[in-house]
Amino acid sequence: MNRELTCIECPTGCAMTVAVEDGRAVRVEGNGCRRGRDYAVAEVEHPERLLTTTVPARGLSVRMVPVRTNRPIPRDTRADAMREIRKVLVSGPVKVGDVVLHNLLGLGVDVIATRAVS
Ligand code: SF4
């Protein structure tokens, strides 16, 4: 099976074709450099994404605070991550980058505010 991917590692945006066998990337074509190959292999074998969402606020000027993970997390942990994040309640002012949840699912990733709220 082949997967078509666009490299997002630089503005060139090389269109790549990845041959996939048993969940492994066995051949990458179309990449302009090694970074693209590494991106394609990681995207096929261990896809990760930043998780963005909102958490509720109490006693502040808004009812919801936008947040995101400070690093990408494995895509297959997304549902568990959302369950943990839903437990968060922000009850005091936050600045952009403030941690609202430490060490999400033990992944070494924090959930941070992406908007200042007071
Ligand atoms: S493969 Fe290399 S040159 Fe092409 S978009 Fe990715 S980083 Fe840029």
How would you characterize the overall build of this protein?
This protein is α+β, with helices and mostly antiparallel strands and 118 residues long. It has two helices and nine strands; from the N terminus they run βββαββββαββ. A hairpin with a 2-residue loop joins strand 2 (15-21) and strand 3. The model has no long low-confidence stretch (mean pLDDT 97). Bound molecules: iron/sulfur cluster. Iron/sulfur cluster (SF4) binds at residues 7, 9-10, 12-14, 31-33, 35-36.
Identify the quaternary structure here. single chain
Overall shape = elongated
What average pLDDT do the residues reach? 97
SSE order, as H and E?
Answer: EEEHEEEEHEE
Order of adjacent strands in the largest pleated sheet: 5-6-9-8
Number of strands: 9
Computed over alpha carbons, the radius of gyration is 18 Å
CATH architectural designation of the largest domain? Roll
- What fraction strand? 25-35%
Stretches where pLDDT falls below 50 for ≥5 residues?
none
Q: Structural class, from helix and strand content?
A: alpha+beta
Largest sheet composition = 4 strands, antiparallel
Name of the CATH homologous superfamily of the largest domain:
CPE0013-like
Bound molecules: iron/sulfur cluster
Distance between the termini: 51 Å
Structure annotation, total helices: 2
The total domain count is 2
Question: Would you give the CATH topology of the largest domain?
Answer: CPE0013-like fold
Percentage of helical residues?
10-25%
